[in-house]
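Record passed on underneath.
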Amino acid sequence: MAGHQTYEEQKALVFRGLMILGVITIVEVVVALLAKGHLIHGIKFSTGFGHYLYMLLMVGFSLYKAYFIVFYFMHMAYEMRGLMLSVLLPTTLLIWAIIAFFQEGSSWGARRDQIKEKNEETVKPAPAKQPQGYLIPGAPVFPARG
């Protein structure tokens, strides 16, 4: 337990944590610079599998850093299981809600663009209709009433 650690053990844990977080942050920056084409010109992960791999790595690194901070710096690792779950389960629901709102916003944005395109369309006028009436051979054509 954290309360039973000596000052030196706690200090070593903090320095080890800072080193781990620092290394992961440096790796994140290098991966981001590489994926955007700033380190090696000509290599850019903007589409396809490389883009998804880049995004997966960034999300994974960020989640690991969040886990590490919550569990060790905020002492969640030393709490009872019920308290851990009461904090982590609503957090997962919040993440799910954020993803759902982004999806919904993307759908609304696509619809807005579609409506904007429809509003900018020019409509060609329909050709004028020929007058219709009773057609009797040899008789003049009179338009129908009504």
In short: The longest helix spans residues 81-120. The mean pLDDT is 84. The chain has two domains: 1-74, 80-108. The CA atoms of residues 114 and 120 lie 10 Å apart.
